[in-house]
């Protein structure tokens, strides 16, 4: 499976999220959240509307003010960081699209190449 | 009933420092109200008030996670406040404050406050254009654009609400508060303007489930489409996230550009909205991409064509 590099895990501060374009022409960023050693990755694509919309209010500003949830700053939707489930807001009952992270022996992270052409929510 | 429109909107936020940075970068000027509250104002003094969501000075929150706490409406005169107080007192509690303003909840529980407007009268030109066949608006040597040109929000234009019961809301705002429906997007809801404002809309209601009740976006009038583009381009370059636009709406004819915000609502730059009077007959169109806009564009990095092909023959 072809992989696209994102970053080194140390480039994501503990307790923070960052967004990466897997290719310059990719449709959506990939969000990576780091908590301790744990990393979770999702498409930057709120499931409120078909096709999905970008969620940050400023570059890398994906968490709510308390840092407890991923948030879509379009309409206040909150998502569980462990599961991607929407727990409050317009897309209640829907979830973020999880992205499989691959980490090499020295901590460099990459994602499957297909996510570069993916806007996440189709239907 | 001489209601002009929103003087400001009050939000209880979870990221106060982020919200302050955002509002300032959007182009609003901070005015500290007290130890824990800030008004971010447009050029005419209308704007947004923010406090931390736990601040006891805030009105009660909505049952949803939406951060809107209160809409503060400006009216022309004290007589209007008296009329609204008398009308609302028929079936709900109305608080008369020391400064003469009145507070109550609307039919769906949105907190409202009405006051004699605090907005300042603006006296500045609209964007000027030149076109063949029409007298020049910019005279000889008067430039249309320049680096560093001002592009600041002039006035709070409108607020859009997610509402679980459109019929109740429309009945309340038209019959009880004298708003007029200017156009309707079927499937979403109506655009409304109050009696003392000739803008196409100060309010737009969108039908949603109850768990979404709250503010969808608010918008500020700019001096014209160029100012809107310049402000949106500068905001994008600071790292803020565009949501929709730039483009131009059909109903209202206003140019638009929406951005995500830490207040959990969209902030919109708008420009050049239609004006209406009571002779206008409301139009209706099915909500969707076709009815929503005349055209839609998307921001990109600056680029320019050169001469010959890159890496091609020199000279």
General description of the model:
The complex is a heterodimer of chains A (123) and B (315). In chain A, the strands form three sheets. In chain A, strands 1-9-8 form a three-stranded antiparallel sheet, with no helix packed on it. A three-stranded antiparallel sheet of chain A has the order 2-3-4, with no helix packed on it. Chain A has 123 residues and is an all-beta fold. Chain A starts with a strand and ends in an 11-residue tail after the last strand. In chain A, strand 6 and strand 7 (86-88) form a beta hairpin. Chain A has a single domain (3-117), classed as Rieske [2Fe-2S] iron-sulphur domain (Rieske Iron-sulfur Protein), CATH 2.102.10. Chain A has strands at residues 3-8, 17-20, 30-35, 38-43, 70-72, 77-79, 86-88, 102-103, 108-112. Chain A is built from no helices and nine strands. The model of chain A has no long low-confidence stretch (mean pLDDT 92). The relative contact order of chain A is 0.27. Chain B is of the alpha+beta class and 315 residues long. Chain B has one domain: 2,3-Dihydroxybiphenyl 1,2-Dioxygenase, domain 1 (Roll). Chain B has helices spanning 16-26, 78-88, 166-176, 225-237, 289-292, and strands at residues 3-13, 29-32, 38-41, 47-52, 68-75, 95-96, 102-105, 111-116, 155-163, 180-186, 189-193, 203-207, 214-221, 242-248, 255-259, 266-271, 283-286, 295-296. A ten-stranded mixed sheet of chain B has the order 17-10-11-12-9-13-16-15-14-18. In chain B, strand 15 and strand 16 form a beta hairpin. The longest helix of chain B is centred in the last third of the chain and has 13 residues, at 225-237. The N and C termini of chain B lie far apart (72 Å).
């Amino acid at each position: 499976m072809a992989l696209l590099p994102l970053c080194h895990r140390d480039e994501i501060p503990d307790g923070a999220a960052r967004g990466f374009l897997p290719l310059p022409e990719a449709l959506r960023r990939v969000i990576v959240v780091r908590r301790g050693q744990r990393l979770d990755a999702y498409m930057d694509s709120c499931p409120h509307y078909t096709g999905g919309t970008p969620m940050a209010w400023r570059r890398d500003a994906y968490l709510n003010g308390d840092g407890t949830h991923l948030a879509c700053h379009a309409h206040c939707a909150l998502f569980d960081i462990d599961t991607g489930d929407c727990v409050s807001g317009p897309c209640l009952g829907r979830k973020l699209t999880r992205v499989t992270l691959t980490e090499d022996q020295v901590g460099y992270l990459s994602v499957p190449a297909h996510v570069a052409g993916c806007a996440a929510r189709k239907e | 009933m001489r209601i002009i429109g929103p003087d400001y909107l009050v939000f209880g936020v979870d990221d106060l420092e982020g919200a302050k940075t955002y509002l300032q970068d959007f182009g609003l000027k901070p005015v500290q109200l007290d130890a824990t509250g800030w008004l971010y104002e447009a050029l005419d003094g209308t704007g947004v008030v923010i406090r931390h969501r736990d601040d006891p000075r805030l009105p009660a929150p909505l049952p949803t996670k939406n951060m809107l706490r209160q809409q503060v409406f400006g009216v022309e005169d004290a007589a209007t406040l008296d009329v609204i107080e008398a009308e609302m007192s028929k079936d709900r509690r109305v608080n008369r404050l020391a400064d003469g303003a009145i507070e109550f909840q609307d039919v769906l529980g949105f907190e409202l406050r009405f006051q004699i407007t605090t907005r300042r009268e603006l006296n500045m030109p609209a964007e000027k254009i030149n076109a063949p066949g029409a007298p020049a608006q910019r005279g000889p040597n008067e430039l249309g654009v320049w680096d560093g040109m001002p592009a600041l929000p002039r006035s709070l234009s409108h607020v859009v609400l997610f509402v679980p019961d459109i019929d109740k809301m429309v009945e309340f705002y038209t019959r009880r508060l004298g708003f007029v429906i200017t156009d309707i997007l079927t499937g979403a809801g109506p655009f409304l303007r109050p009696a003392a404002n000739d803008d196409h809309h100060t309010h737009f209601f969108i039908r949603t489930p109850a768990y979404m009740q709250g503010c969808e976006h608010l918008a500020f009038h700019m001096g014209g489409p160029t100012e809107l583009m310049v402000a949106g381009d500068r905001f994008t370059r600071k790292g803020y996230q565009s949501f929709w636009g730039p483009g131009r709406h059909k109903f209202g004819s206003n140019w638009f550009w929406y951005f995500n915000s830490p207040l959990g609502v969209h902030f919109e730059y708008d420009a050049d909205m239609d004006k209406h009077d009571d002779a206008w007959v409301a139009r209706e169109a099915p909500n969707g991409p076709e009815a929503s806009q005349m055209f839609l564009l998307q921001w990109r990095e600056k680029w320019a064509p050169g001469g010959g092909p890159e890496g091609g023959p020199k000279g």
